[in-house]
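Bug: token stream looks shifted between consecutive jobs. Job 1:
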Amino acid sequence: MKPVLFEFHLPLIGEVTFPAYFTMLAVAFLVGLWLLERAGRRLRISPLKLYDMGVLIMIFALFGSRFLHVIADGQFIDYVHLCTDPKQVEVPLGPGGPATDRCTTDASCGEGFLCNSENRKCYPPRDCLSVFKVWKGGLVFYGGFLFASGFAFWYMRRHRLPFWKLGDVFGYILPLGLFLGRTGCLLNGCCYGAPSQVPWAVRYGPWLGPWEDHVKAGLIAQSAPHSLHVHPTQLYSAVINLGIFLALYFWLYPRKKWDGQVLGAFLLAYSVGRFTVEMFRADPRGAVLGLSTSQLISVVMFGIGVWIFARKPGRKAPPAGSAPATDGPGADPQTEAP
């Protein structure tokens, strides 16, 4: 695929690179912030408060996404070994990896690797900060969603913002952001699927997507120029989330009967879609009781969506075209008119 969207050289600065995944994440954040500010003006909420909330939500989402990846994706011990004993970290050969399968000196391993004099295997150097290097990959949406949701709930209560009204706004912002993010995953090669022979299956080159896992599993040789063909699960997720966004933004949001309806619909639709796509994935992501971590969280999210529809916790939405109510519990007395 294309892990780097584009790069160019600038005088005095040098090479400027735009990684596909983080470029798409940045686009998703900016688009989401624009939609949030646009909706806030309709709800007569100060744009400055929404900008502050949006930036802080992004920070909490990144932290939560990384946290869940570290503890639930089955790679926790590798992060520990990178700091305590990097010689225990296995790294297969290939472009970007060690230069040889049996080394004699550090130089024979190639740039960025050291030689273990005991078994003549190359290993990465000690890096106790690797767990914080999110630009190298390793983010789980549900972790970010849980942390960001907790912060958003506190922030809205602290500033007396209308929780369910803004919840509906996030209900259509999130699937659009996920569509852009999963597109970045497809280009980057993360969140890949199981081997498949379907006509639309994709494959990745060395050190991209499933190539390393296929080498470790003995499915392909270390000299293989590509991985096996796999399900493009990133594309499945992207299409599902785009469909959710279109349905919620253009159909349900203008017709909602009560506040919270769009958020509840997002939780129901996304959890079903995510649970289904997980069946076709094969990247390391943890498992409990025969289900992946994300499938277990999907069950909880589906239950919350059902609760929202059963309780209808938000106030009844005003008729289409009327001005939104700004008084009462949860409204911000300091909001500004657009």
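Job 2, same session, no restart:
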Amino acid sequence: MRQLVYSVATSLDGFIAGPKGEFDWIIQDPTIDFGEIFAGFDTLVMGRRSYELMLREGRSPREFGMNVFVASTTLDPAQHHDVNIVAADLARIVAGLKDASGKDIWLFGGGTTFRSLLDAGLVDRVDVSIIPVLLGGGIPLVPEGRRWPLRFKDSRTFPSGIVSLAYLTAREPQL
């Protein structure tokens, strides 16, 4: 079965974006091989705000060369031909994707989307890259919700000071 992997950058104080959604604080480390990372995925799931932010930057999630699913109840699918807009039942769609053959599924951006799929028991791994910066406010790594135990899988430190941590999720939340 394919794994759903939440792979995200966060500030040391736990924000995935600044107060206005900005991510200019994410430093680039030339020793990180993004090609190798992206090669492990063939499907991308993201929330509407992350998708719209990417579009405002003049980019498209299709540039990753993956099948893209965007969780949104407000976007018109007719206006977004290059992605699959999921207006309802995201958990059922993602469960179906996990059952299909293929590479792992990258859950990119969207703390709210992450929380909903985590609480549905669909997230298998959480990969967090901690960027050495304190933002002081912004969009939190994880919105409020149930407690989920994690099991350490791996860690790596890069010359820029970025620390990447990988955890496996438990199958059941703690109440």
